Amino acid sequence: MHSLLSRPSAAELCMLDVGEDIAKNVTNRTVPTGATAQIRSPAGPGLHPTLMTVRVRFAPSPTGALHLGGLRTALYNYLTARRLGGTFTLRIEDTDQTRLVSGSVEDIVDGLKWAGIDFDHGPGVGGPHKPYVQSERLDLYRQYARKLIDVSLALYPKAVFILMQELVISIQSGSAYRCFCKPEVLAATRDRLFKLRSNATYDRTCLHLSDEEVARRVRAGDQHVVRLNDTSIPRQEQPTKDLVFGTLQDGHGSLPTDPILLKSDSFPTYHLASVVDDHEMQITHVIRGEEWLQSLPLHVDLYAALGLKAPQFAHLPLLLNPDGSKMSKRKGDVKVSDYIKKGWEPEAVTNWLALAGWGVNLTSDSSKGLDPLLAVGALSRQQMIEMFDLSSLTHRRSILDPGKLESLNKHHLQRKITSRCEDQDFGTLLKRAERILGDAYPTSLHDLHDPALSAYFFQEPDLTCAAARKLKTTVDVSVYTRVIKAVTQNVRAAAVEASWTTEDFRGLVKVIQDSDLEGLTTKDVMNTLRHALTGSKVGPSVAEIMTILGPVRCLERLDVAVSFSNP
Prior knowledge:
Helices cover 40% and strands 8% of the residues. The protein is built from 20 helices and 13 strands. The strands form six sheets. A three-stranded antiparallel β-sheet has the order 5-6-9.
C-alpha cells in the first residue's frame, strides 16, 4: 500500500462523530469495505439506538437526466461510505409530481452503474428501509399524524381522520397548522407585505382560525396545505456547523414565512419528506449540493420540531464552466449520458469529478516507490476510497477543466490496456483508443489496428527487435545516452503539468536541442527519441507520440532506454 494513501485519523473520525472505540481501532487500520463503522447518538425520545452504522444517501429528483454535479454528489457519498465501512443508499425523491420526467430514474441508475458507483440499498436492490421511492412511502408516515396539530382529535369526524392518515409527518403539538388561503389571496398578501417593506411572505391568517372553523372547513372539503408554525420552534443557542463550510450564519431571514410542509395534493414538500426519510433510514451524514444550504435552517427546525437528532451536514460547492459561469443544462455537456455516448472512460470522468473541490495531496516521489500517476492525479477507484476525506473538501466553487479530463482519460485508458486484466475486452479498448486518438490526430495518426504501426501506444516497445536495433544504429551510443538524459531531466521537471499539448512537447524538445544538446542534429535527437519511445521508425511525429503517451509514460520508457547499449 502506498504510504501516501492516508488512513482515517482520530481527529477525522471525531469530526464525523464516530465513537472513541471505533476511532482508536480505525486509526491503526483502514476500515475494510463492508465493515461497520458506528457513530454514537445520545439517548432521547424518537432517537434510534445508541450505536448506528454510518449511512449516507444520494437522493436525486427524477426531473431530468443525471448531470455531472449529481454524479459528483453520488461519488462523494459513495467514497465516504466505502472509506468508513458504512452503507450507501439511493433514494428517489419524486414528491414534486408536476416536474417528473419519464425515464429519469432509469437514466440515474444507468449513469451510476456506468460510473461504477454501486449502492447498497435502493430501487431494484431493496434494503431494510424500503421502498426507496418517496411516492411509495406515504403510508409509512401515518404514525406521525396524531401530533400534527394541537387540537382534540375528538372534534374531528371520521373524514378528518382519513385525511390525517395521509399526512407525512408527526410534529409536536402546536408546531403546524392548516392553511386554506387560495393562491390569489396568497399572491395579494405577498404583494401587500412587500409594499410595506416587510420581510414576511405570509400574514399567518389561518394560524388564528378556531378549532371549530378548521373542522368545519375540512368537513366541507376545502382544499388546504399544512404549514410549519415557525414561531413555535425555539432557536438554537449554538450556530449550525457544516463539515465543508464550517460555522454558518443564521439563515432564517431568507426562509419564507411558515413554510409549507404538506401540499394540497397530500404530497409532502421536499423539506418535509427529506427530513423524515433521513430519520427513518437512519442517515448519519447528509452530503449534498451547495444549493441546499439556504434550506438548512428549515431542516434543522423540522428536526427540532420532531424531537429528533439531526444528522451531520456537508454541502458541496457548485461546479463551474471553464469561463467561471455556473454549469447549465443549456450550456455545454452536463449530462452524464453525453459522456457515455462520446466514449469517455468512466474511471476518468469520476476521477475528474472527484478532484473538483477535493484538496487531496498528490505529491509523487518515484524514488520512494509511489505510483507516478499520482503526480498527474490519475487515481484508481481504490486509491480514491483510501485517500478521500470530507475534511479536505474546499468550500470554493470548482472549475471543470476539459483538458484535465482528456489527460486523465488517456492515463486511465493506458492503465487498462497495459494491465490487460482478464475481464477487459482488449478489442473494445482498442476501438475506443482509436476513436479518441483519431479525433485528435486525423491527418497523422496511423491505423491503430496495424500492430506494426501502433503497438507501442498500447504496450511497451521491444527495443531488442530487429527494427529497433536497426533504428538504434543510426545514432552514436554517446549521442544516444546524452539525448536520453537531457530529455529525461527536462520532462521530469514538467511531469506535474495536468495537461500537455503537441506544441508543448515540440517546444520542449526545441529548447533542449538549443541548450543541452547544442551541436547535435535534429535527426540525432528525433531518431533517439523515436527509438526510446516506440522502437519503430514509422508513426506520427515524435511530439505527437509524446503527447499521446504523456509525461509519465515517456519517463518510464526513457528510463528503460538509457540502459540499452549500441548492439
